[in-house]
Amino acid sequence: MPLNEPLPLELLAPARDLKTGIRAIEAGADAVFIGGPAFGARHSAGNSLEDLKTLCAFAHRFGARVHVTLNTLLKDEELPEAQKLISAYGECGADALIIQDPALLSLNFPEGLELHASTQCDIATPERLRFWKDLGMAQAVLPRELSIEEILAFHKAVPGIRLEAFIAGALCCGESGICYISEQLTARSANRGECAQICRLPMELRRGGEAIASGCLLSMKDNWAGSDLKALAEAGVTCFKIEGRLKDASYVANVTARMRTLLDEVIAASGGRFCALAKGTLSCGFTPDERRTFNRGFTDAMLHGDNRDLINPITPKFEGPETCKVISVRQSRGLTEIACRALKGVTLANGDGFTFVKGGELQGFRANSVRAEGAAQVLSVRGRIAAAPGTVLRRNYDAAFERDLSAPGAVSRVMEHEGELEIKEGTLCYTVRDGLGREGRASCAYVFDPEGRALAPEKIRAILMKHFDAHFAMKNVRITGDEARLTVPASFLNNLRKSTCGDLLDKVQACRATGRWQRPEALPQYPEPYTDPRLIKSAQCRRFWEEAGALKTEPPALIARSAMTCRHCLIKAYGQCKKDGGQVSGYELFLGGKSFRVICDSARCRMHLVPEIPHGR
């Protein structure tokens, strides 16, 4: 990048499907990440090649990018299909491929398709980041458990590779790529895109056979780094990732629009150091608010080097923000009427959903109707609701907000263009340029009729200024040549306009980045002399790790047996850390009908869950 050029910051949003991807870009995303037909780490979020092609064409209109996920571990017999998909993604116009399995590096990659190292690669040290950079990765998706200070150290140690960090969405309790608890308990591998989300289940922590805590003890709150964007950018992050490829379009539009506002504030205050990656004028028909769509509560503790206050032990479900307090409850003929006092600024609506905690458990209901009764709001609900006076109600379905989110034009994005019409002797040439300097051009012959009436310049501009579609706007049109000789019908110019705009969009769709990933002549050496054999599913993968020097020794016993490695520590949460003088032995976690020993690596501030070996085995 030339000196003094602003550094582009990329807001990366999730897309479960074409509709969600388009909505994310309309809401302000600079890029989206999406799965293809297979191997995308989310079995229920696959997409056809035709939809991917459509999404790429739409994204490229604004200079936005499409990252395709191919980040599962593959078997030998799956590699030929993976090769076909990789080639097809290049033909679709994808900009980047997110990978985990190094067996893929034995395949061929089309020109213009960047390779990104997935968070599943477990890039836990600067040395590992250097390894993936030396392999030719253009971007690395950092582990979610890194602090801003650690990210800065990574950036300083290994410049020359773009860093991608999670800023919103679900947090995994286990470190990504080395979590095997789902596979052990259900035979569903997280590294094969089949995570059963075991960490969201109720469980019990014991010490010496005595229960000391129970509930959803590993269910992480959601990540929200809205106040950390400037610090992350200063630490070297250039890609800001919103998690959520299983989330619906309303959620994605809301969170993307909110983060767009916050990231734009960072860009505006940077004095020209940063800029947005994509272009286009945005409009939003609602006020984005991350609290009003699905979340499990928020935390950014790990970004600040802390591992406290990460868990919501009551529920992994969406409780919603506090909205009102129960005044009285009346039961009558199968109905419950709950009189509430709404918090300041809160308006309740028919169809709202509410939650409350009773006896340590989350309960909920949907209000069929809401009416005013003096200073109170009365919720009418079918059935019996055991909400006592004084209970605080949270709203986990905001009917009015959801209507705003799904309304036509809730979010929109328009690229501005400039046109130039050249009137020559017997020929018209029309050129349209977009905000990224790309041009479309069309020309046609015409016959001057001396008896005919020439179109007025205002009429010419009005015709050529018409929008091609909802995402295409003309800023101005310049006319050169003798306007008096333009004795053609309005339809003639209209067809010329359509041909020119169509030519531009065809060129945008066909545009490809240059450069092709090539395997290094000699593989860089992995910083450790071992890798976890559970990450090897193919002979091709084994050959890679052998050549990279990662199969020289067996991994340490703790790493080899650990089912989950966590920044969150149950002993620190419910006991006392060894660093503070506590005893860390004798802890067991009972989960899914099995027992796991809790072992602390105090030096790295990590907790391991190790399966207990049944007696006699």
Describe what you observe in this structure:
The protein is an alpha/beta fold and about 625 residues long. It is globular, with a radius of gyration of 28 Å. The mean pLDDT is about 95. The protein has 14 helices and 29 strands. The longest helix has 21 residues. Among the domains are: about 240 residues, Aldolase class I (TIM Barrel, Alpha-Beta Barrel); about 80 residues, Beta Barrel (Elongation Factor Tu (Ef-tu), domain 3), CATH 2.40.30; about 100 residues, no CATH class. Helix 1 packs parallel to helix 2, helix 2 runs parallel beside helix 3 and helix 2 packs across helix 11.
Largest sheet: 8 strands, parallel, barrel
Amino- and carboxy-terminal Cα gap: 60 Å
Question: Based on DSSP secondary structure assignment, what is the total number of beta strands?
Answer: 29
Mean pLDDT: 94
Taking pLDDT < 50 over at least 5 consecutive residues as the criterion, the unreliable ranges are none
Identify the strand order in the major beta sheet.
1-2-3-4-5-6-7-11
Query: In one word, what is the shape?
Result: globular
Q: What does the oligomeric state look like here?
A: single chain
CATH topology of the domain at 9-171 and 221-278 and 287-304: TIM Barrel
Please report which band the strand proportion falls in: under 5%, 5-15%, 15-25%, 25-35%, 35-45% or over 45%.
25-35%
What's the helical proportion of residues? Answer: 10-25%
Radius of gyration over C-alpha positions, nearest whole angstrom: 28 Å
CATH superfamily of the domain at 9-171 and 221-278 and 287-304: Aldolase class I
Structural class: alpha/beta
Q: Specify the number of helices.
A: 14
CATH class of the domain at 9-171 and 221-278 and 287-304: Alpha Beta
CATH arch. level architecture of the domain at 9-171 and 221-278 and 287-304: Alpha-Beta Barrel
